[in-house]
Specification:
By secondary structure, the chain is of the alpha+beta class. 36% of the residues lie in helices and 13% in strands. The strands form two sheets. Strands 3-4-5 form a three-stranded antiparallel beta sheet, with no helix packed on it. Strands 1-2 form a two-stranded parallel sheet. The protein is elongated.
Length: 199
């Protein structure tokens, strides 16, 4: 984790992975099990009480996180495009595609499918528009947000009543009277407005 007195020490996980990913240049190997780097980093953080910064190379939460739309699309098609090492080789279980305002349809579709939702092209477009509106309000979109957006799109709600018009009659000597006209699909309903004391 690069911790130490004063300014800290060289981050050994970075040295290990530099030697491994550039073995053609360095011609050296540490024989360290790189898959233990992330779990070991977590232990060090727990023991020292010093959290690992999210942006820390190799062991930070953002080391394998991707948010940009084109970037995410490339990651889904060919991970080696943006990563010189696989997350699993250092102990991460998977690449973290962070969904946010820069994410595109491909990343949203991939996440929705991983959560068990199969969206048609039109449904995906509707969910994507709702997703973009939400992403303008939140920095990071979580799986529960994606579930809610997909459920909202896939749930078939009955068509609601629309107010088509109303008529009110008022006079000085009589109680006001009125008629309300509602429409749902082809059905039109006309009903008198309740008088005072009626429900």
């Amino acid at each position: 984790n690069g911790i130490g007195e004063r300014a800290g020490n060289c981050a050994l996980e970075e040295v290990v992975m530099a030697l491994r990913t550039r073995s053609d240049y360095y011609h050296a190997d540490t024989k360290i099990d790189a898959a233990r780097l992330v779990p070991t980093s977590r232990i060090v953080s727990t023991v020292t009480g010093l959290g690992t910064p999210r942006h820390k190379a190799i062991v930070g939460r953002n080391a394998f996180a991707h948010e940009s739309g084109i970037h995410q699309d490339g990651m889904l098609k060919e991970p080696r495009t943006y990563e010189i090492m696989r997350p699993e080789t250092v102990g991460w279980t998977e690449t973290d595609l962070v969904l946010g305002k820069h994410s595109g349809r491909a990343a949203l579709r991939d996440r929705a499918e991983s959560l068990g939702y199969s969206l048609s092209g039109e449904q995906l477009q509707d969910v994507f528009e709702a997703f973009k509106a939400l992403a303008d309000k939140k920095k990071e979109i979580f799986d529960d947000d994606i579930r809610a957006l997909c459920e909202q799109e896939l749930r078939e709600l009955p068509e609601s009543w629309q107010l088509e018009g109303y008529r009110l009659e008022c006079s000085a000597n009589e109680l006001p009277q009125g008629v309300l006209r509602l429409r749902r699909g082809d059905t039109v309903l006309e009903a008198p407005l309740p008088k005072e004391g009626e429900e």
